[in-house]
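Morning, I've got a small favour to ask if you have a moment. I owe you a coffee for this, so here goes:
>
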Amino acid sequence: GDVYKRQPPNSKLSEHANNCDREGPLIAFVSKLVDTTDSENFYALVRVLSGSIKENQLVSLLGESYSLSNQDDYKLQKISKCYLWSGRYKIEVPELNAGSIGLISGPGIDSFITKTATIYDQGIEDSWIVFRGVDQLLSPVFKVAVQAYNPKDLNKFLECLKKLHRSYVGCEIKVEDSGEHSIFGFGELYMDCLLHDLRILYGNLEIKVSDPMVKFNESTDSLSKVKLVTKSNNVKNQISIIAEPLDPKICKDIRNGTLSFKRDTPRNFAKKLRDKYNWDSLAARSVWSFGPTVTGTSILCDDTLPDEVDKKQLLELKEYILKGFQWAVREGPLCEEPVSDVKFRIINAQFAEDDADRNGAQIIQMVRKACHSALLISDVSLLEPIYHIETISHVDTLNMLEKFLDKRRGYIFDKERIDGTPLWKVTGFIPVIESVGVETELRLATQGKAYPQMVFNKWEQVPGNPLDDTAFIPLLKRVPLLSTSRDFMIKTRRRKGLSENVSLQKYVDEDTWKVLQGLGII
């Protein structure tokens, strides 16, 4: 039952699914798409929870974004064939019964499904419950930029990217403002498989691939130094937002799903914040949203007082404020990377009386600007992904292993001898951006006596201040440790086609800037 987005109590559909009822109505979940032999189309990998899927059956197919407010993501689908999937073989069967996992095909089924879908019998429209997508245990943080080698192949290249996105559940594809196509995966080997399929399986085309990169996050180490007033473009609305670090325990629980703004009722959510994280009752009831998605680790809170702010007007404009917040934390001020582990608090807000002067365009831009200026007036920082590295190593290679990790900004935190052998189990951490080629280099350096396994583990602050324009960045040499953050930010901005200058000055008016300079805050 935990796979549902929403599950009404005593739902008969839930009972049929939980009991794996073969005689009940058809309920099935498409978890991913599988390539056909010629790689031109896809089969849908389906798990039947109730009833049976049969050849030539007409079923209701619901996309992952289907909801009561978005009923367009729906299709009446004919099932052409059913298969049991056994490794390289597909055994055609007349039907798939409850409890079965198999493949189905049908006209247009692969073009409708993006990654996951829900299947129901016809005639039970009133009780549709949409399945959630497959939860990822890890975040795809390894990244490369790709483009077609021959510009004439652009349309073919884009079609291949769409197929790749559907085939790999954990793959993410993003188009930057510069027009660059970025592919995100879990690591080097995963990315090799992705690029192999892109080159050979789907298009047989040549592509250009950038050097490996990583996904960064932006955050802060301290409370905003002052409260800034941000005005809308028409100067008739204003808002004050401050940023501060979010409790690491809350961030961890949001990431693992223990704390969910969408799944918990408002009362239960507020109770968790009070009981587990020691928030006061007023603060616990003031949370408006998580960001940049429902599982993001940035929080927006309404910390305004009724005596100072027109609460009714504020709630009327809540939708626009949330859109501005989501935009701000989706693309942070440093290098347009997601903002995480930050709590934003609305301190004050004043809006124009005329509806035309406080429209969506004015409010959304203003809130985005206010969130970014709140970050930049605090001790803003860049976060990078870190791999947990585990190595079975011969005793002779321990010193070499320590030096090897130290050279790549990594470190060992535990060594454990394996009884009865000359081998040691060594565990440590290494930044994902420094891990490229680490396996090959380590095996060559130790003559095969050490073999690493790496899994994404956490986000960690990059050394240095990204806004320090005095940081020394040498050409064609490794940068000093305290210049690393500045170096990463500038290179990321260049690659995205953004200007290198990041300053609070473009978020505040000239008078405020001079006051801040006079106070020595910036």
